Amino acid sequence: MDARTSVPQPVNEPVLGYAPGSPERAELEARLAELAGDAPVPIDAVIGGEHRPGTGEDTFDVTMPSDHAHVLGTVQQAGGADARAAIDAALAAAPSWAALPFDEKAAIFLRAADLIAGPYRATMNAATMLGQGKTVQQAEIDSACELVDFLRFNVAYAQQIMSEQPANSPGVWNRMEYRPLEGFVYAITPFNFTAIAGNLPTSAALMGNPVLWKPALTQSFAAHFFAEVLEKAGLPAGVINMLPGHGKEISDVALADPHLAGIHFTGSTPVFQGLWKQVGTNIAGYRGYPRLVGETGGKDFVLAHPSADPEALVTALVRGAFEYSGQKCSAASRAYIPTSIWAQIRDELVRQTEALAVGDVRDLANFTSAVIDKRSFDKLAKVIDACHADETMEVIAGGTYDDSTGWYVRPTVVVGTDPLSDIFCTEYFGPILGVHVYDDGDFDDVIGLVDTASPYALTGSIFATDRAVVQRALDGLRFTAGNFYINDKPTGAVVGQQPFGGARASGTNDKAGSMWNLIRWASPRAIKETLVPPTSTGYPHMQ
Ligand SMILES: NC(=O)c1ccc[n+]([C@@H]2O[C@H](COP(=O)([O-])OP(=O)(O)OC[C@H]3O[C@@H](n4cnc5c(N)ncnc54)[C@H](O)[C@@H]3O)[C@@H](O)[C@H]2O)c1
Ligand SMILES: N[C@@H](CCC=O)C(=O)O
């Protein structure tokens, strides 16, 4: 794969405001009404360019989280036989895709970006809002801007990788060829970000690999439209094969195949660990060593120091914990606040949390909406019940839930005296913020507590105006977060600005939307050419 011409220098896609009366709001509202009013769309698998229902036994209705009786689309799930057909299609497409010059591949993904930034923006946002329960602001930063940014920045990063070439010596020309991996990449994507669902298959494909893409069923409404965008952009048949379906059945076939060259995963820690184990068990059967890239769970913290700005802290806690109902891997779910600051912010945190408007995503005045599905709702309801029953905890805001029309869980703040209780260690993936109040003098001990309380290391924030304190937190929490924020909420990383990912139980930290991620999908070949080869075997010392 080579890149001889220059590619457009990317800039971040501007976030539109959707203020009342704006043209983008009118277009979005019209599309929301159409998509919600249409009969449920059949969400097919796409295998070798052919759209067809999966051959698995089960069907899955994609419903609106905020109105769970409302069916948006129906998936006839893909299963093992579809995975087999998709692998065959991917391997058949591999040689011509690898041979296509980089510029031609890049043009396809740049066109996809422009389609989403332009004519498909309202569709991608409306589908993400309705299917995944995002408000317009949360959809806009995800299914429009971040997805566009991934597509555009990755092209520039790929070219940067390819321009990375070794040194030469007199009479010798050295080259590095960035080949694709041998085989196919299996991309498995989560429900919560349409951008991640788009990035995982396309980043591997950009580097020349054919892909099996298994979106989360609950994200498959927006995934269906993204597949349409890829086709319109000119992606050849078989390069990305979409399999909405049963993860385990598809994995059992994909992970048993000798051509598995990599897994590009984002989702929960236990699922990634299960995939890693399965690959380990099958390791002798593969042609090479599959690359395993996984971005997984988090228990993301906000640590406040007595020198913190109280007003900024409250805003960061409310936005960081409750935007998209805490269903971001980066969401603030544990906060450590000194007594002096707690006295100043407690009532305001409660007031702002109780005032949050939670409801149907079609009402653009809402701050957040329902959680993704019944499974999540049931889990969160149990957690809230347990908090009410636990005498080490006090629920000071929210603490209620209601599934009569949608999977609604009120943003909830729980103060806990035991810093090692589950609320400070376990990822719940919902709108529940645990607060631990500590004595002002214990700040340095609390740094240690933040570091060790949970197995994750994804995102976290320090709030302090004392620079020496900021430095102590940077040092003491060096390995506690792959994305570290100073006086900001721990969510909302932007492609090209804060490359995203964490270590420990949070993943392999290959930084989505960066050249560090793309390099995992290349297998470099070093080529040495001697321009005038020697013709005698002797060396000077032999004379
Ligand atoms: N670190 C990050 O960048 C990041 C980003 C987004 C989400 N997440 C994490 O994702 C989780 C929430 O997303 P989710 O609920 O979709 O996660 P999940 O692990 O339940 O599902 C992720 C994907 O894996 C699939 N899956 C499940 N079992 C499988 C199997 N055996 N084989 C193949 N695929 C299988 C699912 O169908 C889905 O497509 C949270 O833990 C969150 O922290 C992390
Ligand atoms: N990159 C996103 C989180 C992705 C995980 O859900 C953020 O920074 O908020």
From TrEMBL:
Boundaries of every Aldehyde dehydrogenase domain copy: 56-514
Enzyme Commission designation: 1.2.1.88
Disordered as annotated region, ranges: 1-21
Gene Ontology terms describing biological process: L-proline catabolic process to L-glutamate
PROSITE patterns referenced in this protein's UniProt entry, alphabetically: ALDEHYDE_DEHYDR_CYS
Class of the enzyme per the UniProt entry, highest EC level: oxidoreductase
Pathway involvement of the protein, from the record: Amino-acid degradation; L-proline degradation into L-glutamate; L-glutamate from L-proline: step 2/2
Family label: Belongs to the aldehyde dehydrogenase family.
Protein name per Swiss-Prot or TrEMBL: L-glutamate gamma-semialdehyde dehydrogenase
